Amino acid sequence: MNQFLIADPWKIIEDRFYPNRVKASESLFSIGNGTMGQRANFEEQYSGKSFHGSYIGGVYYPDKTRVGWWKNGYPEYFAKVLNSAFWIGIDVKVNGQELDLAKLKILNFYRELDMRHGTLTRIFTVEMKDKTEVMVKSVRFVSLARTELGAVQYSVTPVNSDATVEFASYIEGDVRNEDANYNEKFWELVGQTTESVTMRTKKTGFQVCWMMANEVNAPDARIEKRGREERVEEIITARAADKQPLVLTKYVGIVSSLNHQPADLVTAAARVVKEAREAGFDALLEEQRQSWLEKWKSCDIEIGGDEAAQQGIRYCIFQLLQTYTGKDSRLNVGPKGFTGEKYGGGTYWDTEAYCLPFYMAAVGAEVGRQLLIYRYNQLDKAIENAEKLGFTGGAALYPMVTMNGEESHNEWEITFEEIHRNGAIAFAIFNYIRYTDDRKYLAEYGLEVLIAIARFWAQRVNWSEEKRKYVILGVTGPNEYENNVNNNWYTNYIAVWCLKYAAFAVDYVRQHDPGRYEAIVAKTLFDAPFEVEHWYDIIGKMYFPKDVRRGIFLQQDGYLDKEQTLVRDLSPEDRPLNRKWSWDRILRSDFIKQADVLQGLYFFEPDFDLETIRRNFRFYESRTVHESSLSPCVHAILAAEIGDMDKAYEMYLRTSRLDLDDYNREIEEGLHITSMAGSWMSIVEGYGGMRVRENKLSFSPKLPEEWEYYSFKIKFRGRVVKVTVQGTETVIDIEEGEPLEILLDGRPEQVIRERTFAAPPLPDEA
Amino acid sequence: MNQFLIADPWKIIEDRFYPNRVKASESLFSIGNGTMGQRANFEEQYSGKSFHGSYIGGVYYPDKTRVGWWKNGYPEYFAKVLNSAFWIGIDVKVNGQELDLAKLKILNFYRELDMRHGTLTRIFTVEMKDKTEVMVKSVRFVSLARTELGAVQYSVTPVNSDATVEFASYIEGDVRNEDANYNEKFWELVGQTTESVTMRTKKTGFQVCWMMANEVNAPDARIEKRGREERVEEIITARAADKQPLVLTKYVGIVSSLNHQPADLVTAAARVVKEAREAGFDALLEEQRQSWLEKWKSCDIEIGGDEAAQQGIRYCIFQLLQTYTGKDSRLNVGPKGFTGEKYGGGTYWDTEAYCLPFYMAAVGAEVGRQLLIYRYNQLDKAIENAEKLGFTGGAALYPMVTMNGEESHNEWEITFEEIHRNGAIAFAIFNYIRYTDDRKYLAEYGLEVLIAIARFWAQRVNWSEEKRKYVILGVTGPNEYENNVNNNWYTNYIAVWCLKYAAFAVDYVRQHDPGRYEAIVAKTLFDAPFEVEHWYDIIGKMYFPKDVRRGIFLQQDGYLDKEQTLVRDLSPEDRPLNRKWSWDRILRSDFIKQADVLQGLYFFEPDFDLETIRRNFRFYESRTVHESSLSPCVHAILAAEIGDMDKAYEMYLRTSRLDLDDYNREIEEGLHITSMAGSWMSIVEGYGGMRVRENKLSFSPKLPEEWEYYSFKIKFRGRVVKVTVQGTETVIDIEEGEPLEILLDGRPEQVIRERTFAAPPLPDEA
Fold first, then answer.
1. Measured between alpha carbons, how far is B414 from B427 in angstroms, rounded to an integer?
2. Nearest to B173 by CA among B265, B85, B92, B259
3. Where are the domains of chain A?
4. In the CATH scheme, what architecture does the domain B549-687 have?
5. Which residues of chain A does B63 touch, with a Cβ-Cβ cutoff of 8 Å?
6. pTM listed for this prediction
7. Residue A76 catalytic?
8. Which of these, B9, B99, B453, B674, has the minimum number of CB atoms within 10 Å of its CB?
């Protein structure tokens, strides 16, 4: 447990100022509303180390690629979400002296992120150079209800004398990315008024207008407007009486050309600000609180008897909710959300593999659907991307990292070879329909994507005369501690699965929506009998590496030629490998960065018996170093599945407080948003054993002995289902919606409202 | 045959000015003396596209690495030979008008590189704007005898009237590398006089002083000295009578802190210039001619009946001779010599694999020895390099690219994995001793290197429980169109060979020089019985991939899983693959960039019977695209060996005029110096069949039917041996030195002076 944070079920709290952790806390206390986000930078001037970050979803710039040795096929640009105008800024002077926490004596300091209500509060008292003591309180949020509004209330209270206080509230448009390959500035000025700045991204031409209105509770305050190019500023000077707060309220409208005509931006921003002022800060705050309470109603997880775990899981859910709301199918979930710039804010296969299950269940089917449509809309680019790599005939390779559908990444072993991502995108369609029963999605959007992906695999395999089988050469699996391997089991498996599912989908749409089917055939020039026959040939003759003696699937050809060392025999000085070992040494070791074969067993669990899962789990888990934050959740789920509750708990702990406890000392750069979904999965799919089986919601709940109880809520086909596991009992409650037949440990059970079941015995553990 | 060049046995000639080929010709006509080199830039101002390049061997700068995705173990810097002060500059005005070939009417133009005498001459006539016609002649060279001297004689002759001519002879120190990762300037000024500039490289602190003296054949010339920071300039204005040449002679001393104390540089440069002036240009030119004639005496190759081939091979020899003389063991052979900046001018395994045989035979044993000592001197750095990658106990991994012994390269699949280079460095020791019989080298220098390399392999292999053999995982072989493969046959073979040879060397030195042996044991903490026993264990149990059915060695594990396509079935639109295909497609194809298994058969030919070589040659040659200039020579030699003279000739042609004919349209960047050694090998080792067998010089000459005859000269153990092959006869002539017993087609023969043998029948071709 992080020694810097106070445990609390609903809040993240710092009760002291830690000068060495400012950047880390700026990440931790970030706020967002799915449209934009803001790191927890101080409003006032801070001369210590800080990383200002303000991000607007969907506003990106193609930064020129940096590469040592160019490879044919690399993209020229890496599209990045941009650090944008700093709109929270309120510099403060007290009796002419600058308020700067890096330079003053701090008498107390308290910061709180209220996850239940979506607000960030900071309260501190400092002694100025002239011994005046002032208490400062700031409350801020980015509005969930009004996605273009940010608001700050900033009060200064002299506590041992009267004082003259000067606020300089500003919007600074001259912002650069911390993460820029050639130190370029990505923004240029479009225009400004005394209250607003409008900037445009170079090349991509996105326009954003920031407009502010400042109110202060001092009728006689002196107000002066200043600024310079790319900056507007309002100086408000007033006298604050002893123990009387001087309160500045700052409303900022942030509107972009994603949602408005460029010519209308200033008007649109003015409207946001005007409506906010009319409502007033207190009403807006209450609106924010209600919006967040509403969100929590269908997705809270309670953990009894473990305050740190309770705080950890709510933190994960909170961050996921504020990163992506599903209102805009142009947006997606960047690995760091709105909390940093690393990885460029682009979309990875994390979305399909980890985030989709969370958003479907926690927020709703329509949110999952938006994530799928994001990829549907980028299908043409995925086809172009495949063409660049030599594929033809409408084959699609979705990019490893993307903003607009074009590939951004430039490591050949990843960009060109980590092609299993294509499988995850197909699997997400299956997974979405399985969960939501939205079968029409196949005809509407799914089939086109599935055909294009199947075409890719059909070309990417090759026939090995030697093996008399189809093989897939030169790939990187989910385990990126192997590069350019042959016959990665997971990749081969998901490739065949894609072909099967595409063939099924072709058949399904042909039968259920023949008109749409014909339209798709015409659009995609689909040569149904010929192509599907070829798919079945591959399905029947694919090669899968395995070790018969051990009864396991082999991660790839030649894996057993490696020296078989176990993680438990690694010296602590060698950890983490990715910092201590040279890359070649990592590559030729048997150590696994993240679930690879096990990822396949997780996705395709119904295809395998429990003993097979157990044997593979034992073999691979002992070799996995989990140096990706996306790894432990899959292990946690499978461990729970095979009844290894100790391992499940160990794996759960690896991610649940990864950022809160800053295990890897790297959260300064931003949080691990996508892997937070893994923590949710570990509880709901791991301990709760939630699946959809036989078109029914299914559970096989297990309670870790470290917890008194836990409960989770999910949305499922028009219902809110709450599952509580405590002692020997499982309570299933349909909080909203119709009765439901579920499977509990495989037995069909009817649940009308609330029903209590005796806990099942734990399965044997070998 | 290049349409731009005139065929000539001893000269490279352009008889027209080709404005679009200026940069290419600047490379082609480069001159050097082993210490420094100069691209064939015009002395006078040229406003068209040009690439000024002047290089001094051993003067380098560690340019900050550029990389997209950092991998643990990458070097921070890439050490580069630097483009340095432009010392040939002589701007010219005629009647006040600038002489600039890009802007004037050119009446004639002739340029000649005299390979026999080491001089570059240019003669042209232009019409000035005022219709004055002037003929210009420039002769220049960098002195072989006086390695710190460059000289230019530049004459202007008005041919249709008198004219006023102004020469501005200068040294420009403000020079940047074309190839700089972050556009930095690498030089800073130390000081300057009216005749000299002294510059220092940043970080590395090498100092170089350039000093000039200008003489003109006009006693009444007006002379003015100018300049600015980092530049000295002398303006010489004189009247030239009609058809009377005005001649400027420019002597430049170029001295560096590699050979002088920094404080003495100006004095040293002055001495060079003074001595040159005392000798005078004509005498210096004659000295240069004699120096080059002397060089050619022991290494010329004559080809009868093929002028293009004759010119091509002499060009290769000439470039190799002027790139490296072996006088300084701190220097080596960069892939582009002194003709460009690409690849940083560093040392690659090209030196050991391709250049060493040439220099030993063409220039002398002592030159080969210098190349070995270069690596000996860098042994400590090679041990450090291995330590960075996790190796211990005095194991050495020589860098892929280096200037000072430290690794410069930064592609993991090359830097960390193309470890076969270590084998080439050990093989060079063996090859040198085999050729020269300098057995003492083992005790003096060789053994230490061999132990360190053997230690590397002993750690780099691992035991495969699966195969019950030692394996080598995660390597890149000479064929860089495969990355991170397992059990590359060539790498496994040379690893075992290194262990054997190191074990032999241990034994040899222990027996022949016990004192030195004990010293080496003490210095290297060599645990003889234990380490050697381990080596033998690996030697006995190494795994070698093979295909029993085809009777071939397999390039690596899984090679036969690839789609087996032949080069002859590739569409021309797909060539060259490295420009037309994405990298992953190249990697998973069966196409081979350069000799890989065949490289091993070439190095270790005595280990294999002719049928094995033939089978492997047929298999791999048909899959090799030769997209490395280092590839065809090995194929040429093996083709000759198996009697496939058509293929041998085809392969010979691939490199012999690679640069002269600018096959790949890339010589603007510089020449392929190291691969020129391959052309020499193709004739001497290919057609001539030169080997050392049973400690005797051995030949098995074959005459390609395209040639009337050929002859080559080599130095061998104190002799100059000339071999002439014509019609059905081979003539062996000991031009210098003692009689020699040779092997001719395997038969021992005594040669006292000159002896003629009947040509052997060609071996059967399957």
1. 20
2. B85
3. 11-265
4. Alpha/alpha barrel (1.50)
5. none
6. 0.94
7. no
8. B9
